[in-house]
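S.,

As promised, the MIG run. Input:
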Amino acid sequence: MNFRRVFILLALTPLFAAAQWRSVGVVEATSKSGTNEVQLQSQGTTLTITVLADDVIRVRFQTSPNEAPPHSWAVVKTDWDGGSAQINESGTNLSVETAELNLLINKKPLRLVFQDKNGNVINQDDPGLGMCYEGSEVRVWKSMPQDERYYGFGEKAGRFLKREVALTMWNSDIPGYSADTDPLYQSIPFFLGTRKGKAYGIFLDNTWRSSFDIGKSSRKRYSFGAEGGDLDYYFFYGPSPKKIITRFTELVGRMPLPPKWALGFQQSRWSYPSETRVREIARGFRSRKIPCDVIYLDIDYMDGYRIFTWNSKSFPNPSKLVGDLGADGFKTVVIVDPGIKVDSSYSAFRSGMQLGCFLKKADGTLYTGKVWPGVCAFPDFANSTAREWWGGQFAGLVAAGVRGFWTDMNEPSVFDVPLKTVDLDILHKGDGDSAPHAEIHNVYGLEMTRATYEGILKLRPDERPFVLTRASYAGGPRYAASWTGDNVATWEHLKMALTMCLGMSISGQPFTGADIGGFIGHPSGELFARWLQLGVFTPLMRAHSQINEPNKEPWEYGAAFTDINRQTINLRYRFLPYIYTTMARASVDGIPPMRPMMLEFPDDESLAENDDEFMFGPDLLVAPVLAEGKNSRTVRLPAGEWYDYWSAKKYTGKTSVTVDAPVGRIPVFVRAGAIIPTQQVMQSSGEAPVDPLTLQAFPPSEGQQYTSEYYEDDGISLQYEQGNYFKRTYTLSAAASSISLLMGAVDGAYKPHPRRVQAQIRGVTLPPTSVMVGGQRLERSDQPEAGARTPQWNFDAVARLINVTFPDTKQAVQIDMRF
Ligand code: MIG
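Predicted complex:
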């Protein structure tokens, strides 16, 4: 029981600036444990340095060393092998050396200096301040080189590059936030520092209110720390930023592969108030041939906002409604809030009370706060009994066929109280070790998504759960996708939708998106169309709206925009095989689909601060139009060669180009050599079979070759974990008078529906003189029969492409085109 912390918390100095920091002094004693850990004592403080791997070092500074080690809510990997660590002591210095970096520990006073193997400083404690403490607060100051750049910090508004800003981690419900509003809904205390093409990462694993001052109060040093707990951080060395993200997500866990339908277009609003309106919306999509996979039900589906219930007047037969939607290709997702109405005739309240699942005050009485249902009790998601109880409450919704759950208000948000959340001294029971809300607050949302995810998985063990959350912490993607909360229908917010998703993506949350069209306010047709275009390239593609706004469905802006919006959503469905492949990759190595330019091209100074274009997956460069009244867009192309996706015109990179971008078109470029797997447009992702699978191939320059990957599985079950997937590589190469495409042998047991593969070689001006598939010469047939099963090829001089169509097999296939 952690009463000391509660006590200190109440006595906290309110103003951060007023703190009288004590800087850690001279080391009095050191002790090694094993080959990879050393402890240093100084004036009652303990610093523990643990090498987890050659590129990962944990630094834990404790000002009260006798306390039991706190539990980490984020870290899932604990069995690190320590790499090749060597710890050497000589006089006033101690050094920790690994194969990839050296940590010099100055003992007089205690300061840390991280260096690469050539002795260049990567990161160091500020010589003057270093690690400090005051009351229960802990903080470290680091030197801040003028040319160092900072990125990440999870869900933060404003520019992608973080400089001269002070950022706080404290999950907060802020409807209609703006570029300088901070904090927001989620806390991911992780960032990257980059300098001269080399990157390091820092993850502060502390759930108390924490803060990062990145050159706001000083240009020479930055600092981070928290109001309680240990200064417990992980230092990652790249030098590539990708390597750091892979390591960080190994430490805190990765997004499991979501159900494929969750990557389709999703339609929401607060609220579709009745079964009649929901059916009308579903018909609205199908009758206009606008693809859609998901319809959301916001709070009004419930009986008086009682979670896990239905309003029997407006939703008289939920299973029938959900079933009919399902037959029409729609999955139903419903909102759930944490607040459980205090109402003795309400079964969730009664069972939660019986099992002691709700937060209580120090005197043992129920803690209550007001939210939508009125006076509510709040589940103690830090406690496993409460989590299991919560998970079980979904039985009815799951039985009705509801497929996904949207966890809102889980900062948690409480109405009509000054702090807008649960009282900070309310104790969470945890499992054995209790902790005040001040310590649990930032993981309340994370643990709510955990309870939800685990509960649904138990109820429906053969299906991947889909949970969408507003609040979370580092490691949250293990359980849920997330969105950026209550944004506004302005062009500025469209820009922020991009920078925030990029920030989330490099903070370990790949499955993210913003409310398309803006939650608050009403977008113009143009703003909605541009927002929808960006949405094609955000993993979560969901349109949503506040209550009392005019309708915002894709057909509400006039016929011309309806056509444009249909084309845009069609594009999402065309790219689904590629999008799914990038998501599969993220679930394996943490590298997100949305990649800031600095992540993909860390050595290119001209792209280091670029936050209006990005890579989607390894091979698509997306340059959305983010301002009103534009018909063209200037794009900075990285080194190499790039094709305009629309025209197949080829450009040499390291230059800026301006391309047409009328309101119906988002500029997209493809890396030369890449193969982008695409499919036919369908009205929902579950339609099958899709024939053919079209591999859009963009030939590299003469003498070059490039390999792309492809991933597919049943899109819904967990069998991919047992090898039931379909994975192959495609290698495209070009010589003086030939182009070859090698489809590697399929890895994995999954059998797709029988289908043809259509290799579509783009940007080709002349027809080939011969096309061979697997050593067989194919006939040219410029009027191909629709669906013909015989292998054939044709050339389209206007579109400048060659189509080669043949049945898909699991064996390797080589296609050679001679010119
Ligand atoms: O206090 O459920 O961010 O998406 O529509 C507002 C109603 C509660 C906030 C969410 C928003 C949702 C709304 N909710």
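The chain is about 20% helix and 30% strand. The first strand starts at residue 22 and ends at 23.

- D.
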